[in-house]
UniProtKB/TrEMBL annotation, chain A:
It comes from Acrocarpospora phusangensis. Residues 36-154 form the Aldehyde oxidase/xanthine dehydrogenase a/b hammerhead domain. This is Carbon-monoxide dehydrogenase large subunit. PANTHER family: ALDEHYDE OXIDASE 1-RELATED, XANTHINE DEHYDROGENASE. Signal peptide: none annotated.
Automatic annotation (TrEMBL), chain B:
One of its GO terms (molecular function) is 2 iron, 2 sulfur cluster binding. PROSITE patterns: 2FE2S_FER_1, 2FE2S_FER_2. Keywords: 2Fe-2S, Iron, Iron-sulfur, Metal-binding, Oxidoreductase. Residues 1-77 form the 2Fe-2S ferredoxin-type domain. It comes from the Bacteria. This is (2Fe-2S)-binding protein. Gene3D superfamilies: 3.10.20.30, [2Fe-2S]-binding domain (1.10.150.120). It comes from Acrocarpospora phusangensis. Pfam families: Fer2 (PF00111), Fer2_2 (PF01799). CDD domains: fer2 (cd00207).
Length: 776, 150
């Protein structure tokens, strides 16, 4: 095990781990302020004279805008202004994402995304006017007076329906905004000659990321600059996008990310509302903020997932996989601007953990009358894993093979890395069988199989099933965003400032990165402080998404530490008139190898030789974390309820910087995966409006009442692609857990037709599947 | 309307519109921003505070309803000497928070039950939403704090 791997909270804290010791300190640097009411989220900032912006939103999913009249709103006491699109002809449009080919120029060509609707409403909640007031109450008073008339049009809310183009979102253009593929088409003979071919259709339902803090932005004009505070994952990206929208050089915009109340992928973009706030702040020369409320976020925050999938999987009689085909109709929402090409990431990961010789995946990104689909924790990898792993269980049933054994026969072997998949990824490292075996042992797989068989002979017992899900994912990001800025600076007083371009939204960077830098330099961690999330303080950066901060920013900081140490040795050598080779670095001090002159601490060296900083732009390779999740579930066929009895998650993310924080994220993401499997979904009415009138009483995220016993285990396979060896962490549960749970339910019901179980597995879905089984 | 809120043992004489909810008045009129708004329709519990010792969703209560009542928020959880409340220490020790946005609500609902009826605590945790931790660390933290472990 690497020296970098910190084994316990006690080691992390540098003290003996007892409850008493832990109770006398804060385990994370963030904790003291966040536990005492001292956190500072954007909505907590008191900026004198700040106006609140409220958006007037469409109550239809699709329609022609006939009239917006803001005159009455402007007469309301405390309202500072109200505008429709016609009132602000110079309001810029919403830009499209340039980063990581999430969107493409071809997909957005001819498709304008106005910040305020000009003539056509394309999703429910799309903003048709904006009102600013002295406070939220006044602004809402004004919004209530805006007169809006929209003639409804038929709406399409599933990609399969929208792909028919019988209802078009843009009159002269197809709803299919982007097409792509990975791998090579598979010839008919392969399917014809295979001993077994399994086909299925899956719906990866739309999900709402639901961070507890909704979106926030506050814009303050000062001189010729604009300072923006936002709960955000990528401050430098927001700076660049705001500057481009305003036609300014980037150095006139400063983005500051204070405490952020969760993000899960949903806070890394620029949104129409952000453009409006920046524009109005400059127009009015006053600070303006928008604090999204939950009900508006349920209509207008980005969604995740949203794919209709068709799969075919072929194997020989021994269960060796021959070919896999995945066809995706992806729901990208009303505008392809933020992530119209993101579903290609599912196609790239279609191969999964198996050495299937032929894999072909196709993508059609289809516009629908819903808010835009965008990365949500897992971002394309859950969709790939769930489709393949559900199909593996269906194949095992067809071949009458144990699903664990079917997987064993097909894993990419540890000696095969780097492994180039038919769908274009180069996996860095892995031991997939080790993760599976650890999961089986931890679960007591054999014991549960025995119990399952006992129940099948006991008419009074509820059926029980065991589900497996073996995953591999991609961390670090796509080409173009695999780099990160990291620097370390030593000060005369002995303190060290680390800077990185990432931005924490709950991952504990303030704790993890200083501790890591302190270990690299061999100094007490109390001497190290992190600066991030401020574009004036950190010159460059990419951000925190795609499980990249430890992998990429961690490696950037490690290299920067190495550079700092080298520079310190060179300076000491000059000072002491020695060859550099004669200067030794140890525990934050330089000293001559042969003794003599006393050792000199880093702070002393800075005093003697001037400011000392090492800056680094590190470019990482991709990481491919992997693991196996396994679930045991009991089903009541009469009530349609699912009771998850056990969940085991074995994850491998290589070198871990802070195991307690990684475990915390693994647990939290497993619970989000449970949410996708069993609870979360957006039902639509025929008019295209989501049935979410009661907010979080309609959209059911898991509560403490729904949490099964979850056991987390790790295997350890560093990535050879970075000097640190860390792969990404934090998204594993969203990727691995859903298929394990769905497979357990399918196993309990002994379903031969996978299509009848579509997530979320509500009592209605499960009852129908169970009764179909009995009818059959 | 003129009211006096007593928040964390300090009197706040205020002139508030009757329609303003308690959470907004605590945050904006009293400057106590530790109480967070997560849903504004009473489901998530991030805005939970104690009013006369009882946990309430401060997004569903009007400030004028609390005239002459005692309100306790997360800012008032530590002891008079600044010593953190056992719940605050336990949450940190168990890694029971990540982004921290829901945390004040969990602390206050647990604090209210700890004073009144510790047996109720496990069930009360189920009434708030956390999207980061998966709840298990929160449950452990509250259990430790309830038992007064050291």
């Amino acid at each position: 095990m690497s020296l970098l791997c910190i084994e316990s909270a006690a080691e992390y804290c540098g003290r003996e781990l007892t409850w008493g010791n832990l109770m006398r300190q804060w385990t994370r640097r963030e904790d003291e302020r966040l536990l005492t009411g001292g956190g500072r989220y954007v909505a907590d900032m008191a900026v004198p004279g700040c106006l609140d912006a409220v958006f007037v939103r469409s109550e239809v999913a699709h329609g022609v805008l006939r009239e917006v009249d803001c005159a009455a709103a402007r007469e309301v006491a405390g309202v500072a202004g109200a505008w429709s699109a016609a009132d602000v002809p110079d309001l810029p449009d919403t830009p499209y994402t340039l980063m990581a080919r999430l969107a493409t120029e071809e997909a957005v060509a001819g498709r304008e995304w106005p910040v305020l609707v000009k003539d056509r409403v394309r999703y429910p909640g799309e903003a048709v006017a904006v009102v600013v007031g002295e406070d939220r109450y006044r602004a809402e008073d004004g919004a209530a007076e805006v007169v809006v008339r929209i003639d409804p049009l038929p709406a399409v809310v599933t990609p399969s329906a929208a792909a028919e183009d019988s209802v078009r979102l843009f009159d002269d253009l197809s709803n299919i905004a982007f097409e792509g593929e990975t791998g090579e088409p598979i010839e008919d003979a392969v399917w014809r000659d295979a001993a077994a071919v399994v086909e299925a259709r899956y719906r990866q339902q739309l999900l709402m990321p639901t961070p507890m803090e909704c979106r926030t932005i506050l814009a303050l004009p000062e001189g010729d600059r604009l300072t923006v505070w936002s709960g955000h994952q990528a401050p430098h990206r927001l700076r660049a996008e705001l500057a481009a929208v305003l036609g300014w050089p980037v150095d006139r915009v400063r983005v500051i990310v204070p405490d952020t109340g969760g993000a899960f992928g949903s806070k890394s973009a620029i949104f129409p509302e952000y453009v409006a706030v920046a524009y109005l702040a400059l127009k009015l020369r006053r600070p303006v903020r928008w604090i999204e409320d939950r009900m508006e976020s349920m209509l207008t925050a980005t969604r995740g997932r949203g794919q209709d999938q068709r799969v075919r999987l072929a194997a020989d009689a021994d269960g060796h996989l021959l070919a896999y085909e995945l066809a995706i109709d992806a729901d990208v929402g009303a505008y392809p601007h933020l992530a119209g090409a993101m579903p290609l990431q599912t196609a790239r990961m279609a191969t999964g953990v198996y050495r299937t010789p032929r894999v072909h995946a196709t993508v059609r990104s289809v516009l629908t009358n819903t808010m835009v689909t965008y990365p949500y924790r897992g971002a394309g990898r859950p969709e790939a894993t769930i489709a393949l792993e559900r199909t593996m269980d269906a194949l095992a049933r067809r071949l009458r093979l144990d699903p664990a054994e079917l997987r064993r026969r097909n894993f990419v072997a540890p000696e095969s890395f780097p492994y180039r998949t038919p769908t274009g990824r180069v996996y860095d490292s892995g031991d997939y069988a080790a993760a599976l075996e650890l999961a089986l042992e931890t679960l007591d797989y054999a014991g549960w199989r025995t119990e399952q068989s006992r129940r099948r002979h006991d008419p009074a017992a509820l059926p029980l099933g065991i589900g497996l899900s073996c995953y591999v994912e991609r961390s670090g990001g796509e080409a173009g965003v695999l780099h990160e800025y990291g620097s370390v600076e030593a000060h005369e007083d002995g303190t060290i400032v680390a800077r990185c371009g990432s931005a924490s939204s709950g991952q504990g960077h303030e704790t993890t990165f200083p501790a890591f830098v302190a270990r690299e330099l061999g100094v007490d961690q109390r001497r190290v402080r992190l600066v991030e999330g401020d574009t004036d303080e950190v010159p460059d950066g990419v951000g925190s998404f795609a499980s990249r901060s430890a992998q990429v920013a961690g490696a950037a900081l490690r290299q920067a530490c190495g550079m700092l140490i080298e520079e310190a040795r060179v300076r000491a050598a000059e000072l002491w008139e020695l060859p550099v080779a004669e200067v030794v670095w140890s525990d934050g001090t330089v000293s001559p190898r042969t003794g003599g002159t006393a050792a000199m601490d880093l702070g002393e060296l800075v005093k003697a030789t001037g400011p000392l900083q090492a800056e680094n732009r590190y470019e990482s390779g991709m990481g491919f974390p992997f693991g196996t999740h396994a679930a045991v579930a009991e089903v009541d066929p009469e009530l349609g309820t699912v009771h998850v009895l056990r969940l085991v998650a074995v994850d491998d993310c290589g070198v871990v910087l802070n195991p307690m924080l990684v475990k915390g994220q693994a647990f939290g993401s497993a619970v989000q995966g449970l949410g996708q499997a069993l609870y979360e979904g957006i039902p639509f009415d025929d008019d295209g409006l989501p049935r979410l009138a009661h907010g979080l009483l309609d959209y059911l995220v898991p509560t403490a009442a729904e949490i099964p016993p979850i056991t987390l285990k790790e295997t350890y396979t560093p990535t050879p692609n970075t000097p640190l060896g860390a792969k990404g962490a934090g998204e594993s549960g969203c990727i691995g857990t859903p298929a394990a749970i769905v497979n357990a339910v399918a196993d309990a019901l002994r379903l031969t037709d996978a299509d009848v179980l579509q997530m979320p597995l509500t009592p209605d879905v499960v009852w129908r599947a169970a009764n179909l089984r009995e009818a059959g | 309307m003129k009211i006096t809120l007593t928040v964390n043992d300090e009197a706040y004489p205020l002139d508030v519109e009757p329609r303003r909810v308690l959470a907004d008045v605590l945050r904006e009129d009293c400057g106590l921003t530790g109480t967070h708004l997560g849903c504004e329709h009473g489901v998530c519990g991030a805005c939970t505070v104690l009013v006369d010792g009882k946990a309430v969703r401060s997004c569903l209560m009007l400030a004028v309803q609390c005239d002459a009542k005692a309100v306790r928020t997360v800012e008032g959880l530590a002891g008079p000497d600044g010593e953190p409340h056992p719940l605050q220490r336990a949450f940190s020790a168990e890694y029971a928070l990540q982004c921290g946005f829901c945390t004040p609500g969990f602390l206050m609902i647990a604090a209210g039950a700890l004073d009144a009826d510790p047996d109720q605590i496990a069930g009360l945790v189920e009434s708030n939403i956390c999207r980061c931790t998966g709840y298990e660390p929160i449950r452990r933290a509250i259990t430790h704090a309830t038992r007064g472990d050291d």
